[in-house]
Design brief:
The chain contains 8 helices and 7 strands; from the N terminus they run H-E-H-E-H-E-E-H-E-H-E-E-H-H-H. With about 220 residues, the protein is of the alpha/beta class. It has a 7-stranded mixed beta sheet.
Length: about 220
């Protein structure tokens, strides 16, 4: 199966981390078509692959589609992503992609609260609310890697993190490495500024407005 630019970037970097220090279990949350999870299945030998979606029909289609390829390592689960329980004796890589930043926060917060002793890394590719997501990540996670990806007409920040806190590898609220290295940086910055200016134009005095105001200030002050 051919992966999109977005999923292929996630796959390549996940495999790089896996080669350095193998994961026992991969979790493809809100897996939808299951392309990423099954690509990880085909390119690993001993790891278990958990494909999780809360829509029963999606999970049933995946079971039928990949049944003849499955050697028992691929597990298909109809489950809310916030409810997963992790084996503390294993090393986990959890993918959260294709959902908004607020949903990603909800999933992340639930997982770390339910599994405080688990050994887990995350590969995150949100569709929206990236600043809010980074505010949350900064409190609980250590940065492993981050990139700016263009897939068609859409931009995605890919953030790879570990559930541990290391002040020297603290997550930036706007991102660090990719701004100077990406050919899309200025276009992406302009889109973010336009987005947060629109939100701030509504001038509602609540927590989301205050965070949007902070985001606009941060992104406007980026020197590219």
């Amino acid at each position: 199966m051919k992966l999109s630019a977005r999923l292929n970037h996630l796959f390549e970097h996940i495999m790089q981390f896996h080669q350095l220090s193998p994961y026992d279990d991969f979790w493809d949350l809100c897996c939808d078509h299951g392309f990423l999870g099954m690509t990880l299945f085909k390119n690993t030998q001993n790891s278990q692959i958990h494909l999780v979606d809360q829509v029963p029909k999606i999970v049933e289609i995946l079971k039928q589609k990949y049944e003849k390829f499955n050697d028992g390592r691929a597990l298909f689960k109809t489950q809310n992503a916030t409810q997963i329980i992790l084996n503390t004796n294993k090393r986990h890589l959890i993918v959260i992609a294709g959902v908004g930043g607020e949903t990603a926060i909800e999933i992340l917060e639930s997982i770390i609260n339910k599994n405080p002793k688990a050994n887990m890394d995350f590969a995150i590719s949100p569709n929206s609310h990236i600043f809010q997501l980074r505010c949350f990540l900064q409190k609980h996670f250590t940065l492993l890697h981050e990139d700016l990806i263009r897939d068609g007409n859409r931009f995605h920040e890919h953030i790879f993190v570990r559930f541990t806190f290391n002040q020297s590898k603290r997550i930036s609220l706007t991102g660090q490495g990719f701004w100077q290295n990406s050919p899309y940086a200025k276009v992406y910055q302009a889109k973010l500024i336009k987005h947060y200016r629109l939100i701030n134009s509504h001038n509602t005095n609540n927590d989301k407005y205050k965070m949007s105001k902070q985001a606009l200030e941060y992104y406007s002050n980026l020197a590219l």
